């Protein structure tokens, strides 16, 4: 930031705050009625020179933390024309052993001044840094609707864990008017959800549905093929056919079921080498009957 703290504050306070509704000439306020320590993002991004800042502090002479008191009302600044697109970068790798720096370098070369990154398992549904990147993008679009905002990622696979998540995320980006940029891969480029890129977002949604249908069909085909071979899935039987034949013969001779269970030995599974339970044997004999 080339501006001093005082200069930045004066520039910010020339605008009404879209979030806390503080009028021009006053600092931002908290929900508790205190003077905020930082200006709200939706307000300071209205100043082109501050759009790349993560936060802008409220000067001490405004009394941060004290009861909010409106300053002298000034004429609000005219809306500024849209500047160059703001790129928000996001980088992710799944484990601590994977390398993240190459993604960060690529985002830096793409002129992403604000980058969010995290090393997080693909099993984790909530990704805090992605949520922060998306919130910033949405805040920028809400505060300055004419300002192009681009969410930039190194590759599409780093953005979502599966097709369903990708479809949901693309819908959010499209609704907010946030563009998506892919730096590598077969889909490299910038996609505007409200322009020609709308087709790309529609393809993402269709691809997600096709992916789900494909997985379902392959699963059903695999189950049918296994069933044709006599494998119906599930856990292996505790009492196989040979054991059952032997048990039926002993039962026919009048041997009590508990005694039969002691003469049988489980051949597979975690209970291999043990005798089956009496309850399991009763169920197997009932099915045989």
Automatic annotation (TrEMBL):
Keywords: DNA recombination, DNA-binding. It comes from the Bacteria. Residues 86-230 form the Resolvase/invertase-type recombinase catalytic domain. Gene3D superfamilies: Resolvase, N-terminal catalytic domain. GO terms for molecular function: DNA binding; DNA strand exchange activity. SMART domains: Resolvase. PROSITE patterns: RECOMBINASES_3. InterPro entries: Phage_Znf_bind_put, Resolv_N, Resolvase-like_N_sf, SSR_resolvase. Transmembrane segments: none annotated. This is Resolvase. It comes from Streptomyces chattanoogensis.
């Amino acid at each position: 930031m080339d501006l001093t703290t005082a200069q930045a504050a004066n520039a910010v306070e020339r605008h009404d705050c879209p979030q806390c509704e503080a009028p021009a000439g006053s600092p931002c306020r908290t929900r508790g009625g205190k003077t905020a320590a930082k200006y709200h993002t939706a307000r300071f991004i209205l100043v082109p020179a501050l759009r790349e800042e993560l936060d802008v502090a409220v000067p001490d002479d405004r009394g941060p933390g004290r009861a909010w008191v409106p300053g002298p009302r000034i004429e609000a600044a005219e809306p500024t024309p849209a500047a160059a697109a703001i790129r928000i970068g996001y980088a992710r790798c799944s484990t601590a052993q994977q390398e993240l720096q190459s993604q960060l370098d690529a985002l830096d070369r793409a002129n992403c001044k604000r980058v969010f990154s995290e090393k997080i398992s693909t099993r984790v549904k909530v990704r805090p840094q992605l949520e922060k990147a998306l919130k910033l993008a949405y805040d920028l679009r809400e505060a300055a609707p004419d300002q192009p905002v681009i969410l930039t990622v190194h590759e599409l696979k780093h953005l979502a864990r599966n097709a369903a998540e990708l479809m949901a995320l693309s819908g959010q980006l499209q609704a907010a008017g946030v563009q998506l940029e892919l730096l590598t891969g077969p889909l490299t480029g910038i996609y505007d959800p409200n322009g020609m890129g709308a087709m790309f977002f529609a393809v993402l949604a269709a691809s997600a549905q096709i992916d789900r249908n494909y997985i379902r069909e392959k699963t059903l085909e695999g189950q049918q093929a296994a069933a044709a071979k006599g494998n119906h899935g599930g856990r292996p039987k505790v009492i196989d056919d040979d054991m059952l034949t032997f048990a039926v013969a002993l039962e026919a001779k009048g041997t009590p079921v508990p005694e039969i269970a002691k003469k049988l030995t489980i051949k597979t599974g975690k209970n291999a080498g043990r005798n089956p339970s009496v309850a399991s044997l009763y169920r197997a004999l009932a099915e045989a009957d």
